[in-house]
Each structure stands twice: as structure tokens, then as C-alpha cells.
Amino acid sequence: MRILMIGAGGVGDAAAKIAVERDFFDVFVVADYDIERARRTVDVVKERRPGENRFHAVAIDASDADNVAAMIRLTGATHVLNAVDPRFVMTIFAGCLAAGANYLDMAMSLSQRHPSKPFELPHIKLGDEQFAQAGDWERSERLALVGIGVEPGLSDVFARYAQDKLFGEIDELGTRDGANLAYYGPDGSEAFAPGFSMWTIIEECLNPPVVWEKERSEKGGSLEAGFFTLPPFSEPEIFDFPEGIGPVECVQVEHEEVLLMPRWLDAKRVTFKYGLGAEMISILKALKSLGLDSTEPITIKGVQVAPRDIVAAVLPDPATIGPQLTGKTCAGVHVTGTGKDGKPRSTYLYHVADNEVTMRDYGAQCIVWQTAINPIVALELLATGAWSGVGVLGPEAFPAEPFLDLLAAPKPGGYGSAWGIQEVEAAPAPVG
């Protein structure tokens, strides 16, 4: 296996640090528009494993499908890992198909709404542009594994495991993400900093969240009929997260799991709720009211720039905040329904990352590390043949046990990152 990873930001840098410990690939090329950033990542991973010679750095323009295809051919890449933000999904996706490489990403193609109907179901939903090309990928006998980060990604693997091993009937697959992280600025006082791309946070959280319901789907006669939207920050609830994180208010957010899980899993309802916290919600609402969420360029002293890009640029880089971050983050799926024994069941399958541990072991803050480990596990499963397929597929299209076993198995055979199952006695408490 020859891997081309596009993007040497926080997630890409962490992915390389995780990958260097593994032996399933022959070449790992780190590509970024900033060649120096790619070189820094390669230098660090070589320091982590003396004698390492599989890693190389190159420059790439992820916005140009032809440039992506040319780099695939130049490097002989068999698999491309997209580690840049979702604005570049479709150009990298197209470059891979043109050059005959397999593709993996952690965030799918963006949704698009009609300007006059911003709160209705988007006419192009998350991932629609990729799934529209599924036939082309099948005919090329190549795999596009979409949404294989942590959420989407590990959350989808958990959902598949719940269906196969724990539940006879599922009422709701509810992805729930929460943390007790705190960021301290240079002066030592608590400050605001996003744990991952602020550009993406704005996109996800200010778009109307999408929900899927089986009853609507059956009445409408198609999978698509089951999707509908709610206002941003809808249905707040207090969810009690494990391993000391505790209760966190979670709200509905537009996210890929809702668009992926109904394609392969049988549930009556699919949702995604994120523990944003009151401060983040207040900031997002303010950005919206000021028009600073816009991606349309404006002219400032003769320079064209999008307001959202300005917001992202003035905030701390998520890749660099690890030393000032404390706490844990948790990703998982709350599954309700009937267990295999025919009795009611309410179960949370989860994975926790502790910033102290990820900084100590990888020099990566916990949110980017927790995202980065999952595509590397998936690449190893593809290399060994434990996972295989062609076309455009989500994580839930594959058996969950090989992934979860490899993730949790002690090093050096596995990745040494445990996951858990918690029985939830009562439904999460609604807010208000």
C-alpha cells in the first residue's frame, strides 16, 4: 500500500504520527499547499522512529483535481487520505477517480441550500455529490470510503456493532459528542479556542440540522423522504458522558452520520447532537447576526476575503492548542430499542480521548488525535483484506468487529485505544 495524505494540519499531523508506528504500508507521502508544513510533519515522524524512510513531503494544490491526479500518478499512491477541510472534498475525490486511486475522507461533500429557502432541507445534502458518483467508482473497481474520522467514522462503526451484536430492533441511533475541555491562553486565564476547524464548526452548527425518520421514509416511498430539518440548536438535552466528563448540554447539529447510517442500518430515527456549550452557541449566534459566517468574499482595502475565513484566521490554530488544553473529549452513539434478548435496552457505545495522554504520547491535542486514528485503522484493515469493497461506501457498510478489535488491542499488534459500552438507565433529560 502506498498512501498519499493530503493535508498536514492538526489531523494530518496526528495521523502521520500514528501511522509511523505501523508496518502495513510501503510509502506515506504527506502533501500540503505549504511544503514546509508537510516537511515539519515528516521530520517529526522520522524522529519518532529512527531509521524511518517511508515518509516523504510534497506540495499540492487540493483545489485542483488535475494537480491531485498528477501527484497520485507521480507518487504511485494506491490510497489517498483526505485530511483537509470539506471545501476540497470534491476536487480530491475527482482526482482520485481520474488517477485510479482509492479514497478516504473524514468529512463529506458539503450541503447546498437554495438562497431563498435557507431553513428547508437542502437540495444537495451532505455527501450527495459523492454518492451521485457511486456507479463510476464501482465501474472503476475502486473504493471511496467516506466519513471515516471519529464523527462520522467511529460513531458509524459503533452503530453497525450495535445492530449486529446488541439490538434486535433499534428505535434511535443518536450520535452524542461531549467534552469537559478547557483552553488557557498565554496569560494563564481561561480563553476561547475551537478544538477543530472553526470554518467547519460554523458550517455544521449554523446550518439547519438534518434528522432521519423511518416512518417518513416509508410513507414517502424512498430513503430521501425520511430526511427533514430542524432549526439550529434544536432539542437540547443533558447527556451524562462517561469517564468523569459528566453532564453536558447537547443540541442538534447538521452532521454526516444522519446521512450515512440510514443507507445501511435499520433504525426508526437517526440524530446527531453535539455538546457545544453556552459560550460556543452564543458566539455562533453572534457571528451569524453580524454576517461573519458568510463564505462570500467581500472587498477590504482592495483585498477579496470571505468573512468566515477572517474568523478562522484570527482564532488559535487547533493544531497548536494542545499544551494549553486540559480535559477529555468523548464520541459515541446512544442506541435505544430492544436488545437481542427481547427486552428494552438503552446503551451508549463510546470512545474517550484524554488530552494529557494524547499530548504525552503523540504531541497532538485530543480532538485531532481522536479523529486521526480512525482512518489509519481503516487503512490497515484495507491493507490486510479484513475490509474490502468498491464504490462509495460509509463505515457502517463494513463489519465492525475487526475495526473495534484492532483499535483496542494492545500495542504493537493493535492501537491500544480502548472503547467502552455503558448502559443508560434513563433517557437523557430535556432542557427547559
UniProtKB/TrEMBL annotation:
<dbReference type="Pfam" id="PF16653">
    <property type="entry name" value="Sacchrp_dh_C"/>
</dbReference>
<dbReference type="Pfam" id="PF03435">
    <property type="entry name" value="Sacchrp_dh_NADP"/>
</dbReference>
<dbReference type="InterPro" id="IPR005097">
    <property type="entry name" value="Sacchrp_dh_NADP-bd"/>
</dbReference>
<dbReference type="InterPro" id="IPR032095">
    <property type="entry name" value="Sacchrp_dh-like_C"/>
</dbReference>
<feature type="domain" description="Saccharopine dehydrogenase NADP binding">
    <location>
        <begin position="3"/>
        <end position="116"/>
    </location>
</feature>
<dbReference type="InterPro" id="IPR036291">
    <property type="entry name" value="NAD(P)-bd_dom_sf"/>
</dbReference>
<protein>
    <submittedName>
        <fullName>Saccharopine dehydrogenase C-terminal domain-containing protein</fullName>
    </submittedName>
</protein>
<feature type="domain" description="Saccharopine dehydrogenase-like C-terminal">
    <location>
        <begin position="149"/>
        <end position="408"/>
    </location>
</feature>
